[in-house]
Each structure stands twice: as structure tokens, then as C-alpha cells.
């Protein structure tokens, strides 16, 4: 099983990502998070601190961790975007998000744009990740972690 970052060749709308999911029979859920904004490039000559990527999964909301909710699998990108926008709408311009390497404007822009730059896929089979490589919408797949099931019995 692997954790990987799948980077797209171009940002995708929720509709494009739904088509991508259907093409590859991907089921969105707790093991798939959406990258709504890539991290800013680090430049040590720039006095502004670098910003982290904006990554979202519906189980990141505290309310969703306490109650039962269902993922809509293939169409999950649309629901995830709606809930991400709702969450950003709860924030105020004065909220200090610097501890997370984020700021309100960065989040608000990502929510407004609604484009998905990539996916963070957790607990995926290497063969399933490899099947994404030939797709023209996939730029890179970077493995972040790999575990092996050594139970041979």
C-alpha cells in the first residue's frame, strides 16, 4: 500500500475530475484528498513566508468525524468542493492561519477557483497508482510512503 501525490498536467474542475474518476474507476473517500492550491515556491530572498498546499478531504471537518456521513464516490469531487467552500466561508479575513502556513486570501482564492491540481491518495495499491501513469491528465505520481503486507499465510 502506498501514499502518493498525483499531480495533474493542468488544474481540473470538479466535472473534469469526476470524468477522470469514472475513466479510472476511482472511488473518492477518506483515502483521497484534493489539492486545491499547490504550495508556493520557496524563495529565501522573498520576505513573505512560503504557503502550504491547500489540501481538503471531507473527514477533515470535526462535525464529519462525529457523525456518520457517506462519500459519493465517483461524484465526490463536487461534494468535496461544496463543503470546502462552505468551510472557507466560515473563516474571517482576520483569522490567523499562519501556524498552518496558510492565510485567508490563499484559501479564499482556492475556494473561488475550485480547481483541483492533484490528489493525495492514501493506502492505494501500487498497481492502481501505476495504471494512472499513461493518462495524459497525470503529470507525476510521487510516492510519499510505501508499506508492505508481509502476511504470506
Task: Please tell me about this protein's structure.
By secondary structure, the protein is of the alpha+beta class. Helix content is 30%, strand content 25%. It is built from five helices and five strands. It has helices at residues 14-24, 62-66, 76-90, 104-113, 126-130, and strands at residues 2-12, 32-37, 54-56, 116-124, 138-146. Strands 3-2-4-1-5 form a five-stranded antiparallel sheet. It is globular and about 50 Å long. The protein starts with a strand and ends in a 7-residue tail after the last strand.
Separation of the first and last Cα atoms: 18 Å
Morphology call: globular
User: What's the story with the biggest beta sheet?
Assistant: 5 strands, antiparallel
Tally of strands: 5
Helices and strands, in order, run as EHEEHHHEHE
Q: Strand portion, in percent?
A: 15-25%
Q: Residue-averaged pLDDT, rounded?
A: 84
Low-confidence stretches: none
Order of strands, widest sheet? 3-2-4-1-5
Count of separate DSSP helical elements: 5
Q: Which range best describes the helical content: under 10%, 10-25%, 25-40%, 40-55%, 55-70% or over 70%?
A: 25-40%
Structural class: alpha+beta
Gyration radius, to the nearest Å?
Answer: 16 Å
Amino acid at each position: 500500500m502506498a501514499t502518493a501525490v498525483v499531480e495533474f498536467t493542468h488544474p481540473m474542475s470538479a466535472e473534469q475530475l469526476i470524468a477522470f474518476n469514472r475513466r479510472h474507476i476511482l472511488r473518492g473517500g477518506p483515502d483521497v484528498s484534493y489539492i486545491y492550491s499547490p504550495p508556493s515556491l520557496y524563495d529565501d530572498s522573498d520576505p513573505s513566508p512560503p504557503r502550504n498546499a491547500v489540501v481538503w478531504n471531507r473527514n477533515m471537518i470535526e462535525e464529519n468525524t462525529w457523525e456518520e456521513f457517506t462519500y459519493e464516490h465517483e461524484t465526490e469531487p463536487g461534494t468535496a468542493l461544496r463543503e470546502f467552500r462552505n468551510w472557507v466561508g466560515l473563516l474571517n479575513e482576520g483569522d490567523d492561519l499562519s501556524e498552518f502556513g496558510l492565510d485567508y486570501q490563499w484559501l479564499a482564492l482556492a475556494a473561488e477557483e475550485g480547481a483541483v491540481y492533484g490528489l493525495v491518495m492514501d493506502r492505494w495499491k501500487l498497481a492502481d497508482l501505476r495504471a494512472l501513469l499513461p493518462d495524459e491528465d497525470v503529470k507525476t505520481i510521487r510516492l510519499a510512503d510505501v508499506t508492505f503486507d508481509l502476511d504470506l499465510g
